[in-house]
Protein 1
Amino acid sequence: MKLKLSLMTTAVLFFVGGQLVEAQKVSTDTLPKEQKIEEVIVVAYGSQKKETLVGSNTEVKAKQFADRPISNIGQAIDGASPGVKVSTSTGQPGSAPSIQIRGIGSYNISTSPLYVVDGVIYTGSLSALNPNDIASFNILKDAASTSLYGSAAANGVILITTKSGRKGSDVLNFNMSTGYVGRSIPEYDRVNARQYYPLIWEAIRNGRLTSVPGTTVTAANAYATANLISGVLKTNVFNVPDNQLVIDGILNPDAQLRYTDLDWQKPLVKTGFRQNYELNFSGGTNKTTYFSSVSYTNETGYIIKSDFERFTARLKVDSQIKNWLKVGTSITGVSSYGNNSVDGADSNSSYINPYRWTRFIGPIYSPYAHDPTTFATLYDSSGNVIYDAGSGRGADAAAGRNVIQETLLNKDISKNFYIISRAYAEIKVDQYLTLSTNVGYDIRNNRRSTYGNRIIGDAAPAGSATKTAITEQTLTFNQLLNYKRKFGEHNFEFLLGHENYKFQYEYLYGYKQGQVVDNNDDLINFVTIRSLPSQTDNYRKESVFSRINYDFNSKYLLSGSIRWDASSRFKEDVRWHSFWSAGAGWRIKGEDFLKDSKTINELKIRGSYGEVGNDNTNSYYMYQSTYDLGYNNAQEPGILFGYLADPSITWESNKQTDVGIDFGFLNNRITGSVEYYNRITDDLIFQVPLPVSSGVPNNYVYKNVGTMYNRGFEFSLSADVLKTQNITWNINANASTLKNKVTKLSDGINEIINGTKKISVGHSVYDYWLRQWYGVDAADGSPLFLVADDYAGTTASDIRTVNGTLVTTNFNKAKYDYSGTAIPDLFGSFGTSFSYKNWSLSAMFTYQLGGMTYDSNYASLMSSYSQGGALSTDILNRWTTPGQITDVPALNSATYNSSNAGSSRWLVKSDFLSFRQATIGYSFNTSDISQLGLTSLRILVSGENLWSKTARKGLEPVQTFSGTTSNRYTPARIITIGFNLSF
């Protein structure tokens, strides 16, 4: 039977015992009933008919991300499913985003989902997986879907299924793309050099009037003029004398710049370049199929000395050796190289953080040295520019450092090597019973080398080098017994399984100082050993699990599962724990009154309840008190008490309830789902404080003491607006809500304050706890805070009443209170795909409504007394005149500590709309390219992170789930052009 291409939909996935087979699903209106192919979907340890699922399982197929210029499969998860929140990856090439599924699963331990690759748990970096080797991934969100993974599934599960060969003719595919990499988030607007000097002068003048009572304005003006350069900023880049630069608050109109090379970003920021090449070859016979691929990715970031290079090679073979025996194996080799920029999140305030430096350096300092007389840029005898080490900079401008020079001289190199291997055997005992076994072995060797130069910076004048070697090995071995049988309209499936998991971590670190010769950063070139630790950690899990599925004519659905886990992280008497789920569904479409409906094509109600766990703690030995080695005194050995353990500590447990409705109307041109979930985390692991007299390190012990919930609604909708022979147009959207609340803390713990947050019963873990900003006193420009209760009845010069409200100008007397939350009211994505004949277009937007971001980056640019640091253009709205209404306090060197203090002033709305990605492509007609020996040829242009709208220019509201900001490598905009061809 011949079918038109328009009747064919995308590949459907079949997965049994580690095997993936791809098949075309034919439109249900074009074939007799007996020829229809049932759509199945990948689930834990197998597959299941989609119509009989009772769990929450979102499938994302390769075609949805195949044309995108992504180096990490985690980037394809953003916007792919309701209930999934993504903190975008940094601009560092190859970096991965952070992912949360259905809220905040924990407070002190991991909230990341579990990844499973081809049926085996995967703990390596997602950057080691070539996105073009992936056939699909499934996001499992509720207990009915995840409970078979037991103690590792509390934060959801992402099943990644790799590509397999197909029976039939051999196919050779070649894909290539290349393009541009640039910055996607604009920088905050800041004042220029001509604006800057009068602003600092004003802060000095106002500070003099405040700190020295009786000083006249004339005297204060003269004081500010005299001290502006010599006392504060140290550098005058204009061609007028220091004492004539700013007079009475006005920049000398005759002032001209002596030199103009004041841009620190230009030498550090460039246009990056991305290229990707892939060749894959697949095919097979009736007995054996194969898929092989090689790929090369090279991406240079828009910050100098940041790049990522990856080479992968993969082979997967499946063979039906006997009619009762099927085996398969796959192996992937990965080699990657990374030139790492400074991690802005972990090194937020570091002097070598290029994002911090270029954002906060005052607009009056040059990176380069200049002749003191001619002001010409200086060069050494070899013609190289001489950098300015900063002796003539203010206190906020990092005297003695130069981020450009240090970035060029320092090194941070990563070299990673991975082997990812899978094998399975499937024995068909009889027509109902199948025995299968899967084994997965992964080994990861991570090597990192750093070099600190001896000319300028932290390592000067000795120079330093470090070498880090990390080897991780995982071995997973499971055995599955699967029984499927049909009795009339009754369908049963029973799974019984056993699994061993072994993880070993080996670490070696060497740090030496005292460089001997130039251009050699091996440790042998350094004299003094400063640190040389090593360690080996082991982690084991043993599991037994079972699942039973039942359906009556795909109409009444039941599912139940249980898993017993033992984790080596916990003591023997609490090591074993059971996790389980039960689910039910009613496929109303299967009822006689809807069976023949042309309007309603799918209608199913489903629900589940279950318990899963989280043992991903920050220690492999949570129940054991530990001691730290290496505290030696010369040749005398030393040991130090390092960690006090609670022997009874065990898993955090998630109790999950899920109710959903799936629907499809008008020949499935409109499809979607609505879900509600309630996720309760019991036995939260918290740091319980202990008295200092106890002699316990850090004065706390970890215990299972808390309870919190996450609950919300999820909506997804897809509609084919147009569907003709030449035109198809689809629109889709998803939306999610989230409510998080702590409901219990242990006795003796009423609150836990951590940075900008306070954890207490009745509040979210992401609720802000901040000084309460009131505003600016229109009378004198003072910063105002609500008064803390302890000072409400006192009288002091720093407490006053404004507009009937008791306030203070002293941030130390300010009231602390809850001030909103980082959790949005609504988040999700929407997109469209359109095709006309050979042309296709797809686009996706992500959005967030509600929630607040604590913008510490902006706060640093709004100092009321900057001593060489940059200033936001919003500082131009500062208070200057009695009666003036503004939200920016007066510039004042005497009161700036209060103006700059952390408070609710720095909260800003987290609403955003992002044009996340778009692709436009053209596919040539087969008849036009067949003479070239090609079966297909497609040209495409694709882009990532194309545009965003936020509450403030420069703001990046999705960089953390907690709503805080850092001076990090902001995400890259990537635009590529490429082609795909097949032989």
Note: The chain is about 10% helix and 50% strand.
Protein 2
Amino acid sequence: MIGKVQASEMHGVERPVRYKAMSSARLAVAVAMGLAFTYGSVSVHAQDAAPASGTGSASAQTGAVNTKTKTGTEAKKQEQAKALAAVTVTGIRASLETAQQLKQNADQIVDSVTAVDINALPDRSVTETLQRISGVTIDRFVSPNDADHPAGEGSGVMIRGLTQVSSQLNGRDTFSANSGRGLSFEDIPAELMAGVDVYKNPNAEIIEGGIGGTVNLRTRMPFDAPGQQIGFSTGVNEGDISKKSKPSASFLYSNRWKTESLGEFGALIDLSYSELSQQTDGIQLEPFTRRTDAAATAGSGLSTVYVPGGADWRTLDFNRRRMGIAGALQWRPTNNLEFYSQLVRSSYDMSWLEHGAIFADSNFDITPASGTDFNYNGQGIFQSGYLNSDTWRGNYPASQNGVAFNGDTRYQVQSTTTTDWSNGFKYNINDHMVLSGDLQLVKSYSNETDFTVFSQTYLPGVFLSTNGSHGLPMVTINPSTYVDNAANYFWSAAMDHKENENGMERAARLDLEYDFEDSKWLQYMKFGVRATSRSEDNVSTGYNWGPITQPWATIDTPSGLATMNSSLPNYASLYSFSGFYRGQVTVPSLYFPISSLATNYSQAYSILKSIEASGGWKPVQITPGDLNNQGEKTQAAYGILYFGNDDALGIPVDGNIGVRLVRTSERTNGEGQYPNLSGNDLPPALMAEYTGQYFGLSGSGHYQNVLPSFNLRFKLTDDLQWRLAASKGMTRPDFTQMQPFLLLGATLNTDKTAVTQWNGTAGNPDLKPMIAKQYDTALEWYFSPTGELYTTAFFKDIGNYIAQETYTETYNNQQWSVTRPYNIGTGMVRGAEVGYNQFFDFLPGALKGLGAQANYTYVHSEGGINTATSPYGGAVVTGFPLPMVGLSRNSFNVAGIYQLGNWQARLAYSWRSRYLLSTSDANTHLPMWSDSYGQLDASVFYTINKNVQVGLTMNNLTNSTVKTIMGPTSYGNGIVDYNLYPRGWFTTDRRYELLMRVTL
């Protein structure tokens, strides 16, 4: 059962330390106060960093967090710059030290991962790097709505359990065309990154958009380094199941030149290329249905039992190619003026080929084979039995006493390209005033083709055990040789789906900051304005299923079907599933359409139409309902005041207070469509009235939001500090949720003489943004350059929560039950984080190279909403409480690290508890959960000399299983099965990559 689970370069200068050490008693009181506040109902953790403004300086252009308090004196800035330039620590230790400095000295809550060495983020994927940060978790599925297809690499990012995460590149808003509002982080090469920052409670400078938080990806700039930098890396990776070796390479060149008359110039180019191949094997159970019929309950002594529809097994071969380029130019004609241009372009090409043996009967038609009974546990849940189905088969021979299975050969190919080009300047008007500006253009497009060709057979003597070897389902058939005969299969169906998505945004911003040099409390203030114009021009078809031959769609053969031994026999082959699930599971082989047919979508119809029944499958055609054309304009203005005093309160205190004002204007153009009732035995006037005709839909609207923020920090000692933060955030609805399309339908009675229900589905252009009031507090102790211990608590009060609901709407004087997203709910998220990093330098000899990292996050939510679907009639019924999507109650990271002499190594384990993937999975229409998951990764590097380093990275050393769970199931009339049933078990490659890094 389930319950409620539930600003420039100037900012790089540190203030002189002028406070006194505290007594031990005073320190103890301060610690106790901090802990009390930390675990109060309102709190949060992380680091405080002023936003990457994207203005002219090195730190601002790369989106680096604002980590120091301004002094207002240029001399101190120059001294600090010299000190930073003198740092020569490298490797893991240097990256941790830099990240810790960012955290300790930041002006707002932010956590960072840095790559001090070129191309040296700790993971080969940006997404997998992010999961190392406390409070951040990731998905491992291609799409949360499709839990049947785990991703080759980590995918969606959640912060403190919320999927509403804003993405930035060098402090500027960015996105991928296929991901709604944000960036698909797996699209971006990790090799291009200088660092990744996670803002958990952004201040007024940060661009609005993420109530979960904001992720900022930073690339390098030529003025970041004192002179020439050259870096090169190459590698080869391989999975232990796929057995395919794939290359990776990157190259960076950066330099700066001083001239006598034109000032200083800098240029940088960073290139990246990588490929990956991976195999995933999965076995699944079909949804369990509540049964009270005599056939299902026979021999059990129970009045109600729960029976699965059968089992599925599938192998997916995944291939990915990722390319990236980051380029930058900087020009400083005088000490007070700087111009820059920055370009980042990434291309992500992905494809996967799947062979899936998929149960093809109706779940509630499954019965025990003749002369047998099903076996159940004490709760009436199916354990094992021989399956039969009484679904109508037509005249197909040898079809009785069997269970229908499809052999799905499915190929999906997707290409996404995102280009982000920005130009800007920074001008020091005088010693106290800085003006900066920035123009940005983001263009992203994505194309996807998804094509499946189906065979079908009726397997005899199917025995299913839900708890076989290694605790996994087991499937056998009798006789086992039945699968080897192509005559026992026929060409069943085909299905295609296409997407073409284009997004573009133009953004301009202007910022002014002013230093208060002589004030005891006021440090500096910033004001800024930003305007954007974004367009989305997307095409996404439905999944266009059509028969080739079926018992009800026949051709002129003895069986009425196109059997695979006589129809296109060269396009079918036996797929053996050899070595399936690392040999832990034995499953039957099946005849499948050959891979080259599925991968040749453009020619498939010309091949298949020769054997199709009349009215069979034809390639999908774009309709007005597939189009989504939207525009959005925003205007924002902010003001923020930074303050601080070392003596007035007895201890140093600083902080900032600000507000961001945002106006959003939207326009939409789309279509509505009435049902097509022609060809039925309905009144002629009714059929003439509804012929599938379209009608125009359009709309426009706007809304305003006021987003205040406040950050306060108390420096209790040199090493101990306590933070408080409060802000208001917003997340605009996804463009898919606002799609201006209304599809109206009609359900007919069995003899098609009357309409029994008028219904529809739609987007909602009138949606408003989700709003969150956010409160954080943190106690942080920095006891060494690479040693920290922190604890944080947080609370989010969420309004305008978006969920699907069904209401009655009137069109053409007819009432329709229309399901669309609405702002209908509220929610609450609260929790705490604890983190620890340290190198054990006090240990003797080689042991002093040892270190450890660990963090733990607890998150609790309330307020999730869902609409359920009855598995029998498919009707929408009242749902039941669920947690918010994507929220794990517990998650942690623990890592052992080592760096001494020429060696450095890392052994890292990440784990998260069960969480809700979707309130209605695309395949089962049930709530779908991802079970607890942990994965062990490792790396080891050896420095041959000052220029060359070699290493090995390893992923998924624990051979971890991705497991999905389904339920509860609502049947209507108040009947709910609260059991959570296992759905799928997936295993994928352990990955190994040999690397060489060269710096000159």
Note: Confidence is low (pLDDT under 50) at residues 1-63, 67-87.
Protein 3
Amino acid sequence: MTQRPHAKTRHFITTAWLGIYLLLNLFVANNCELAQHRLAFSLASLSLPFFFLSCGRFVACLFSLPLTAIVVVNLYIIIHYHKITYDICMAIAGTDSADAANMLRTIPITSFLLAGLLLGGVLYATARAARFRPLYALFGLIGCALTFTIALHRPLNRDIAGHYNVAITYDSVHRHYINSPYFAKNLAFYVNLPGFIGTSLATLALNQGYQQAKAYRHSLTFTPHEHINSALLPGRVVGEKNIILIIGESDAARHHGLYGYTEQDTTPHLRTLAARGALCAISNAHSAASMTHNAVPMMISFLTPQNRRAILTEKNLIELARAHGYKTLWVGSHEGTSLYNSPIGYLSNFSEQVVRPDYSTLPLSVREHDDESLLPVLQHQLEIYRQEAAGHFIIIHLIGSHVSYQEKTTPEDRRALPHAGSYDQAIHHVDHLIATILHMVEQTLPHSTLLYSADHGEILTSPDNGMHGVYDGGQEQYRIPIYFAGLHHAAYCQQAEALRQTDGTFSQLMEKYILLTMMGYQLAPEALHAARQQDLILHSDGETYDYNRLPGPKAP
């Protein structure tokens, strides 16, 4: 009789443990955008805790550690991004150690303390609830096997799977880029195992995906693609001698002075250049995606929200520049072989000369996530190009104002804006980088035109923290600054005005047509007219939306 109160307590703790597990898994499942069978799987997944709670205290506590960590991570993503999309799983899977460290630094210490308290509570409850019951453990194991087998053999919606049928990744063993269907294959974890189990297994599978990809190996070469986009007409006119494209990162237009920002003087150099007529800004401009691995390829290739295979089938801007006699250079502080950056690495390798942190065709090097290290490389190459008769197409890919912001600043930025948050200080540093590059170009390649465009915007949650890729974040994470400078810059700002969408915005998708004009290509008026009729976005959930019908608020 003395055991009965303890037995009742244990039964209560066990019931509460399983109930909380079920509610949390169902909560996460309901915040997975493409997930199916949410309630059915959440109920069936109870076989997992039922299994390890029957394996004895030590094994149960051992299992509860990673399970709790998975729950905490999923809850944090939902709190931070409001939804867990498959693209977010891809982003997490593709994050390298440097990016992960930067992201961890942005998480408040209170979050870690709460996670520690939760872990302690789970370990205590697990130790009280767990008992060694071999028969129950066997039933739980059989239930797990049946649940996962049935779930993973459910057919995927073809439309959903089709969104991920372009899977550029880097085979680090054979050292070449490949295209494989494993993005769509691993989608089954996310869709059919909804909740923190599905998202975690999908992320893990994506992270290890290149191992699976070897079974479907289709090596991607850097020989020119055969097809030319239908917007290009035969023949050519005289283009600009030198074209420089600077790609920014996580750069919100509303924090630039030329876009109306008055709280801090974040862009003094750009303001000065505009005042003397050496630079113009495109108002009401937005990106075509809110995540780098989607946005940058749209700037360099004919990939669009509606045609994602164009990156593999049509000549990109680097190929088209080379076809018109330009020498090409890609220099950037992003590496190009991780899961997340592979599409960017693949495109950059079409350039004759490439300098990335992980790869260089020149006896020069840059440091990852260090834009200052790009400047000596650029200066060195510009001095060489000064002596050449050929024109040049140069792409400079910055880490810019990506989190963590403080690491993207220098003492000079902090002294210039001592009372500003680190994001504004990072924008101040981007302003310095653009001005420095412009000065280099003016001194070495005076017959040049420059375009600066961010890959996407940023949503600031505080002066020192922010995010993008938020499902219901609305338009703010898409609003970007676009600047033209150098020779004939005013003419290209006028062209941008003529290429606005019918809703009055300027889409990042139209930048390629301006760059092609700079290269001397002639464009079909009917193709430009058709491109202006729709204002489409590839959103963080993998779906295509009209810019004015995005989930969340419109930008101010």
Note: The chain has a mean pLDDT of 91.
Protein 4
Amino acid sequence: MPAPHTQLLRAFWRYEQALMTNDVVALDDLFADSPATIRSDGGTTLVGHEQIAAFRAGRPPVAARRLTRVHVREVDPATAVIVAESVRADGGTGAQTQLWSRGLLGAWQVNTAHVSLAPAPAAPRLPDDADLTSIWRVTVDDAATPFPKSPFPEPLVPVGPLNGLTVAVKDLFAVAGQQVGAGNPAWLAAAPVEATSAWAVTALLAGGARIAGIAQTDELAFSLAGTNIHYGTPPNAAAPGTITGGSTSGPAAAVAAGLADVALGTDTAGSVRVPASYCGLYGLRTTHDAVPRGGLVPLAPSFDTVGVLTRTAGHLAAAADALLPAQDVVPVTRIAVVPALMDLAEPAVQKAVEAALLALALRSEATVETVTEIGPGALEAWFTAFRTVQQAEGWAVHGAFVASHPGAFEPAVEARFHAGAQITAAEHEAASAVLEQARATLRALVPPGTVLALPSTSSPAPRVDAGAVEIDFTRAATLRLTCLASLAGLPALSVPTPRVGTAPVGLCLVGGPGQDRTLVELVTGGSL
């Protein structure tokens, strides 16, 4: 918790817990004992501590809720306003606004409180005339060859964590009986029909999931925009008129629109976390090599990893359980914040992330601490080194195909590959040395029990009609945030609790190697 508000936030959290347990004595103590104290819920206004106490004593317990954002605004050293947003088990939302004052003995109490409740918002959906070919390359309904099902014989199918859920598979994973298109028609034309499915696909099927379809991706996953010139830009049901982000663009669009429950994607430089942020989804990038990459078209093998996106915390936990190996779950007691990372995001995103982080810290009772050992200079050097190695590996993996198919790629994507061809062995070696140092620094920052918190993206999703300059600027700013977990091989989870107005953005949590399940438990533990 930020030091200036520690005592206030302890009082607020005591109030929140007292509400959940219907502790009338604690609630009476936390409301100022004054005839001027006010409590209103939009329908009834109670004036005076006596009226409020009588109301508390006679009403049933409050429905369980989960804090999503907490905003604190100091009026003066002895007065502050807290606006707390929450979600209930039925999906309904609420907001409580409280004026807190500190008395002569230093205790914080509520002088004025207002509560507002709203029903569950309508689920995002696409217009009836939406072009689904920008989301799907092939679906379960139009596949010439049926998609594979659970590897277990029908009578022996166990009750898996994903029973009844559907998966949108990024078009980089092998699916038995299908081709891998990799977001590019020339690649698809030359692709063989796969005899077996990728390891991750098989794991999800073994967990009880069904494939809804193979979803579009940016060309060979070398983009963060999700704007494929061959297949179109997938619509973002969570923020209409904006891009979904890439390169797990199609799967993210499918999940955001309710066309699938889980998106199976990849994350080399943020391609799970960026769509999660733009589409209001949970997005988990797993520890490098924690999930086998067999059957996956690579981009930069030093950084490629498997990831998933979901609309709900429960689906996230189920998908993670199906994919991840056994890991020790360590309670998180410390959340580190690096000011230089927060400064990479737009001011509105910073405030949104801070509000979501404060709610998470209160729920988990973890301490938020500022870490200043990493400054802007180091971050820029790390980003430059990451980009150098990523481009060099991209050319090493796909250079022959790109060179033999001139003009087959979007110019910006083709230029990124060709930039890799210009990197010398000495430059690659020097960049790799910088990354080794960065990796050691970042891993030391997140020992067991500690996570790093930062914005998932530098801004909300750009509009579909944004110009190339704006898209490139946003991509570069966001890459400076997303490359950190990638270069260190760390798990990272984008949580969809921050909002900029009505636009979704993500709070990103980065853990130590092999702490994927810890991140999931931190976010989903006791979830409604």
Note: The chain has three domains: 3-118, 132-323, 334-375+427-524.
